[in-house]
Amino acid sequence: MTSLNRLGAGAIVAAAMWMLCATAAWAADAPPAETKQQHDARMAWWREARFGMFIHWGLYAIPAGEWKGKKIAGIGEWIMERGRIPVAEYEPLAKQFNPVKFDARAWARIAKNAGMKYMVITSKHHDGFCLWDSAVSDYDVMSSPFKRDILKELSEACKAEGVVLCFYHSIMDWHHPDYLPRRPWDKRPTEGASLDRYIETYLKAQLKELVTRYDPGVLWFDGEWEKTWTHEHGIMLYDYVRSLKPSIIINNRVDKGRKGMQGMNKEGDFRGDFGTPEQEIPATGAPGVDWETCMTMNDTWGFKSYDHKWKPADDLIRKLADIASKGGNFLLNVGPNSAGEIPAPSVERLAAMGKWMAVNSESIYGTSASPFAKLPFGRCTQKPGKLYLHVFTWPADGKLKLPGLKNEIAKAYLLADRDKALSVSADGGVTIALPGEAPDKIDSVVVLEIQGPAKVE
Ligand code: GLC
Questions:
Q1: Are 162 and 210 in contact (CB under 8 A)?
Q2: Closest ligand 1 atom to the C-alpha of 278?
Q3: What is the pLDDT of residue 21?
Q4: How many angstroms is it from 308 CA to the middle of ligand 1?
Q5: Is the pLDDT of residue 18 over 80?
Q6: Of 251, 103, 63, nearest to 171 (Cα)?
Q7: Is the peptide bond before 177 cis (omega within 30 degrees of 0)?
Q8: Which residues on adjacent β-strands are paired with residue 67?
Q9: Domain check: are 203 and 328 in the same one?
Q10: How far is the CA of 222 from the centre of ligand 1 (A)?
């Protein structure tokens, strides 16, 4: 054997040993393989929930869309990027973060009273500031004057109110010195920076803190579009988080499968348990695919003092019904201000949604997509044995027509008036006789009790 060959053989042995070790480490990290039944069981609470609260909150609530007296265009939580603010100038905001009006229990109640079953809060957004007491970071709430672990308080409050606490966690980090790529205007030297070290000693360490301390129901990643983040990273991170808590649910932004803002995955084998359409509602449902539309109530996720473009409550209620009728979840955003309050216009809208849900939530929770391709008067959701007709446009002649429905109707009634049976006639389809006045001018729900699965021709 020449020395070169000996070196080659040694290298092969070393490589083989490394691979063995790597495989072993991989196996320890990988989530247990899952049958369809186990997968359905893991997704069950989330599919039942249908409606959750998104919360974007962090240092950006202090400038609230303005920097050095200038209004910065774009969404509030991106002010650091849009305003090209150097780390050294943005970071001191932490010394001003003192949301004395923050009341975790009040937030959990606002969500619950709206009919929301879960809450997804930014544990860390792209700016890198952490809302909990992180052992691996000084850029967290403990180094602010506030000095209270916000996520701990929320985890207790959510538990008490029966709301599932979940975290949005940004992969991208504009503050951490090891994170790459740097923003083009960030002048800190990149020499010695290491994305691998960021992932191994920071991102993963923080996720371990979040999962083991606060027991989130969902980890909602974002920032995966960066060119340094790879499909392999996505696999690794998904498997790592599942290894920490096998029953956790993870969105598709952990990996590289997402097709733009529409949020569903392109063809291929990508990690992630649900699609994430952003600011849009898919035109149709996606059979066999779990998805969640995330949406703002005005035009920003993080608080901006001068964004008053609020969507009306009527519109938000119909959007909730529309999304449920296509088999999706609705994650509706609030952006609390720097004092720690959810803005009044958001609270008002959530109260209006809660009022509608108090009567009609049966037509949202645990429902699946409509069996009808299209309905002229509104939307339809269903559960075994029941069709829920969401009537947006109350028929002037009092006749609600469902052409093509072939089931026999055992019973028909309004959720707003359950004891009063509505008369039904079969005429090739089904026609329901409605009272003259809609009980709810935004969305009145008519229940049809049927035998077996819906048959629509
Ligand atoms: C976008 C934005 C981000 C926001 C997210 C919510 O990806 O970058 O600021 O948190 O949408 O889906």
A1: no
A2: 12
A3: 37
A4: 19
A5: no
A6: 251
A7: no
A8: 70
A9: yes
A10: 7
CA of 294 to the centre of ligand 1 (A): 9
| Percent of residues, the chain, with pLDDT higher than 90 | 91
Residue nearest atom 11 of ligand 1, based on CA coordinates: 278
Parent domain of 415: 378-450
Q: What is the pLDDT of residue 428?
A: 84
Instruction: Count CB-CB contacts under 10 A for residue 181.
Output: 13
Range list of H helices, 30-149 = 36-49, 79-82, 87-90, 104-114
* Res 305 pLDDT > 60: yes
Taking CA atoms, 146 is separated from 152, 156, 397, in Å, by: 14, 18, 60
Q: Are residues 432 and 305 in the same domain?
A: no
pLDDT at 9 over 50: no
Residue to mutate, 126, 226, 278, 299, ligand 1, most ligand atoms under 8 Å from C-beta: 278
Inform me whether the pLDDT recorded for 14 exceeds 70. no
Report the nearest atom of ligand 1 relative to the CA of 276. Answer: 12
Ligand 1 binding site (Cβ under 6 Å of any ligand atom): 56, 75, 77-78, 222, 278, 294, 301
Give the rounded percent of residues in the chain with a pLDDT score beyond 70.
93
Ligand 1: centre distance to CA 153 (Å): 24
The residue whose CB lies within 8 Å of the most ligand 1 atoms, and thus the one to mutate among 82, 220, 222, 274, is 222
Flag whether pLDDT at 343 surpasses 80. yes
The pLDDT score that the predictor gives to residue 32 is: 59
Residue nearest to atom 5 of ligand 1 (CA): 222
Distance 251 CA to ligand 1 centre (A): 13
pTM of the model: 0.93
**Boundary (domain end) residue, out of 363, 392, 409:** 363
Residues 260 and 386 in one domain: no
Q: Relative to the CA of 222, which ligand 1 atom is closest?
A: 7
Domains: count for the chain: 2
Which of 62-67's residues contact partners 24+ apart within 8 Å by CB, and which partners?
62/93, 62/96, 62/97, 62/338, 63/93, 64/303, 64/304, 64/305, 64/306, 64/337, 64/338, 65/300, 65/303, 65/304, 65/305, 65/306, 65/307, 66/305, 66/306
Q: Closest Cα to atom 4, ligand 1: which residue? A: 301
pLDDT per residue as tens digits for the range 95-109: 999 999 999 999 999
Question: Can you give the pLDDT at residue 403?
Answer: 87
> What is the atom index within ligand 1 of the atom nearest the CA of 168?
10
Same domain, 358 and 413: no
Q: How far is the CA of 262 from the centre of ligand 1 (A)?
A: 13
* Banded model confidence at residue 198, pLDDT cuts 50, 70, 90: very high
CATH number of residue 272's parent domain: 3.20.20.80
